């Protein structure tokens, strides 16, 4: 039984209160009583506003539902629909011309372009791996993935043929990124040979090699004849180290299963370890116990012999939860749980203040900023609420105004349609906007749930609204001055085993104007970094068009013809149900919020909660409009449960779905579909949290 204690009229989990008081407030020299009094006052102000914003979501959705029901069976009138959205306040007037005013932004966000990782904050090992992914071995990335167009490595030790192909590909990269005068890097005899065409690319010496720069990213060419690779290399090159994941988001939201005080304490403890610089994780590998820690900085000397350093770690954001959920870790005097997003804002900012005030081993932000990504905000009112909340947190912690920076996830329809006004609401602290296909599609379906049956999920990727969404996000960000100040991001490459395809496809994100994009692993970050050497995003951004109008974005992705053959209906249901079950069973039974989940074709995909939102909402929509029946859905669920059980057969801790149809995991999957229409904004969190709590309670 959790022990609760009283602080300023709040009932707080004792472990959480002790953690904050002893591990955070004491090192900061803050008075605990004053903090809790201030926190209680902050809640008194912001909790009613939070509730009112959620009520506004429900009101707008109800009005939109009624409009579609009233116009059922009639041709869609786009002009009348847009006028209706304006009249109910769903669409707001565009703000006048403005430029964001964000100050004190680290170069990794403002002036450098490169890959970004998102990592579940509850997993310390993954968190350390991501934070340490600032630098990655290009040789390792090519040797171990299908990104290299050469026969795969043979089993049983080092495959020299594969290694030679890796080395040749590495030389090709160096020739393209760091061209030499009248020769190739393959011709070098040692590290003193060769002359750069552009001498300004040379940065200096490291202890083992030479440091260069291209398109703002660093490249270390490691010379070491005492290594097996360097000993056989003509020039003694042992590796090519690339600056890779410039930034990482430690995620408290979609990629974690955090439902109570125990889970939140782990999240905040891990964040403290990252910020303080002393997070460690030990694990067994190959019969040995290994301990992972944060990397130190990379030391080098300039040509003039001056000692300098580069960060050895990603610049860290923390993603708070959205406005919807509450958490039992802290309750009001009446027993009501407080909004989890407000708790995250206060606790993660308090922890990050250890960095801002100089108590960290390495330091995160050299500009003195705290970086928080805020997801799932609906429109400018909710962005303004977050801005005011961050003002209040700064006042509570005694921080200068706009110390806390914000990243706005453009993943809800009302935000996409009003993106300029959303940016304006946080214009002096915004450092990040990003698109996310899965969540955004889930909200697209839910918002227009009553309009009619949606097109097949795969067809969404070519729909008018999605193409407009991706293009407008970049164009609106550029219009309001994000280039050179903030990140304009694109979504995740979900298949960590398909690096060859990623290398072909993901460069499109740069050519669309994104100066960062999400990748699923440190290895993927190193490979994706090659794209940023190939293209100068900031130059591309200068020639992109102004944002297009709203008409295409508001084009509802309804199916033009719903007479799908039986095999296509079955295929669509199976695809949705298999992905849903494969993820839910890990979330509910194991508390794993993000992992590589095999899809229906047994391809491993990095899945998080957004996967459920789109899949469950799509099935719910087809059920509502009679495209499929409840019996058809249950048939698919049962068949796909057997497939998911088979895919997890090698896991000794796995609890099968078949034979446990009334257990929490299968029950959650059914609820997500059959109660999907009534879920707020189509979110999966309320049902997942309920069934995870049931599972944890035994």
UniProtKB/TrEMBL annotation:
Residues the record lists as binding glyoxylate: 319, 411, 436-439
Q: Name one GO molecular function term.
A: malate synthase activity
* Uppermost EC category: transferase
Instruction: Outline the extent of the Malate synthase N-terminal domain.
Output: 18-74
A single Gene Ontology CC annotation of this entry is: cytosol
Which keywords accompany this UniProt record? Acyltransferase, Cytoplasm, Glyoxylate bypass, Magnesium, Metal-binding, Oxidation, Transferase, Tricarboxylic acid cycle
Q: Which stretches make up the Malate synthase TIM barrel domain?
A: 316-545
Cofactor(s) recorded for this entry are: Mg(2+)
Q: Where does Mg(2+) bind?
A: 411, 439
In its UniProt entry, what is this protein called?
A: Malate synthase G
Biological classification of the source: Bacteria, Pseudomonadati, Pseudomonadota, Alphaproteobacteria, Sphingomonadales
